[in-house]
Amino acid sequence: MAEEVDVVVIGLGPGGEDAAGRLAGAGLSVVAVESRLVGGECPYYACVPTKMMVRAAGLVADGERVPGMAGEADVRPDWTPVAARIRDEATDSWDDTVAADRLTGKGVELVRGRGRITAPREVTVDGRTFRARRGILLNTGTSPASPPIEGLDGTPYWTNREAVQATEAPASMIVLGGGVVGVELAQAFSRFGTRVTVVEASERLLVNEEPESGELVRRVFEREGIGVRTGLRADRVAHANGEFTLHAGGAELVADRLLVATGRRPNLKGLGLEHVGLDEDARSVPVDGNLRAADGVWAIGDITGKGQFTHVSMYQAAIAVRDVLGEEGSPAAYRAVPRVTFTEPEIGAVGMTEAQAREQNLPVRTSVVDLRESARGWIHKSGNDGFIKLVENVEWGVLVGATTAGPSGGEILGALAVAVHTEAKVTALREMIYAYPTFHRAIGTAVDGLAGG
Ligand SMILES: Cc1cc2nc3c(=O)[nH]c(=O)nc-3n(C[C@H](O)[C@H](O)[C@H](O)COP(=O)(O)OP(=O)(O)OC[C@H]3O[C@@H](n4cnc5c(N)ncnc54)[C@H](O)[C@@H]3O)c2cc1C
Ligand SMILES: NC(=O)c1ccc[n+]([C@@H]2O[C@H](COP(=O)([O-])OP(=O)(O)OC[C@H]3O[C@@H](n4cnc5c(N)ncnc54)[C@H](O)[C@@H]3O)[C@@H](O)[C@H]2O)c1
Description:
Strands 1, 2, 3, 4, 5, 6, 16 and 17 form an 8-stranded mixed beta sheet that branches. A 5-stranded antiparallel beta sheet has the order 18-19-22-21-20. Strands 10-9-8-14 form a 4-stranded parallel beta sheet, covered by helices on one side. The model has no long low-confidence stretch (mean pLDDT 97). The protein contains 14 helices and 22 strands. Helix content is 31%, strand content 26%. It has 3 domains: 146 residues, FAD/NAD(P)-binding domain; 103 residues, FAD/NAD(P)-binding domain (3-Layer(bba) Sandwich); 111 residues, Enolase-like, domain 1, CATH 3.30.390. Helix 1 packs parallel to helix 9 and helix 3 crosses helix 7. The protein is of the alpha/beta class. The site of nicotinamide-adenine-dinucleotide has 26 residues, from helix 7, strand 9 and strand 18. Keywords: FAD, Flavoprotein, Pyruvate. Pfam families: Pyr_redox_2, Pyr_redox_dim.
């Protein structure tokens, strides 16, 4: 006998958890189904623990900058407090009791287990069947994808999930994949003494960002002693006597640990999508502006292919909730999706890269300013690597994309995210006052650098 409810949420990533609470708060009966941890990847295996690593690694780097600028410092990096902070403060030893209680406290019924759509508006979890009068909200997220490399399966390689549980920094590590996960973790471990080599199949790091971003991260990595091998695809992996050997294009790399950071696959298999006319083998679930994927089905988060970020998951949750409740509002817009790669230098970016804008045949004009040449960059000295790049649609006189790489690059991005989101005129950006001597003042210099400035 099916149990009648208003909404079933399958998967409690950041957006699903938020949406379930809001829908219950609006008076609906909500069942929320989660097979692992309430809150999803971000708080337990991704954003939060990795940013704790990054923060600790930044402290080490700053300590090492003291000589020559502020006296003497004896820096002896130790992973123990990093691991303890992740275990105790971030993840509660990977226990979601607090999050689960918070959710049920909002009136949501939490059902542990794997949810599966068994008919339109029907979800089954371990023999319990729920009829969702208003519909089903999918937020099942992604899992680490392991590439089809000979010998890899069956070896004790790490993904982000094992890396955040590390109790010590390994002596050496190969990082397979020079995307966001790869570069953030490579630098964090390296600053705690791990000898790291990043192996990336494409010609540059951070291939989805501006080429200048990948080149900058490579330059800083090589200066810090991190090996960067781009244009190299792994052929074979072996694990023996506690060591990994990676064979790639004639080269042979050996390390204690292998971190696979080659992207994610959506958690769609076995979800019963065929019952609502969707494809479980697709790379993403197509959604409209209100996050509707099918009749009585909404989808949010990484599975929608609109940017794998917690802020996108949360943004979409708010819109889906509004639509489920039948309220009016603006449809989702993705022209100003901000993103930050938390390396040092931080790589902030919003909107389109120059290449993406050109692919869309937009009339493009760009400007790049080296942060080291700004007053603040010169004052900052050690650790001042960075740049600001602007991508203008000349026809409209607005920015369609921007990158802010450097110290606090993710914070400086805020100003340009507003500009891209509100389609502020470049003329207005040229006429405003930028505080001296800030890093963000370089935005003014970059705006002047757009031809016609
Ligand atoms: C190492 C790393 C660092 C990151 N750092 C950042 C960052 O700094 N900032 C940022 O914005 N983003 C970051 N991200 C991305 C971020 O983690 C995701 O975008 C975010 O978690 C949103 O994902 P989601 O809402 O789609 O769901 P997820 O967080 O992936 O959660 C989905 C949930 O659904 C559950 N589930 C799946 N299938 C079922 C089923 N059938 N039944 C029941 N439950 C199911 C899963 O167990 C999981 O708990 C990072 C990612 C990684 C890997
Ligand atoms: N700070 C943040 O916001 C943050 C941090 C981490 C992750 N994320 C999100 O998680 C997503 C996934 O990150 P990711 O780094 O796993 O994926 P990614 O897609 O960003 O990068 C994966 C990289 O691995 C490379 N690769 C694939 N197969 C390979 C192979 N066989 N050998 C060598 N290289 C190979 C790809 O060319 C690519 O550069 C990101 O796109 C991002 O949206 C966000």
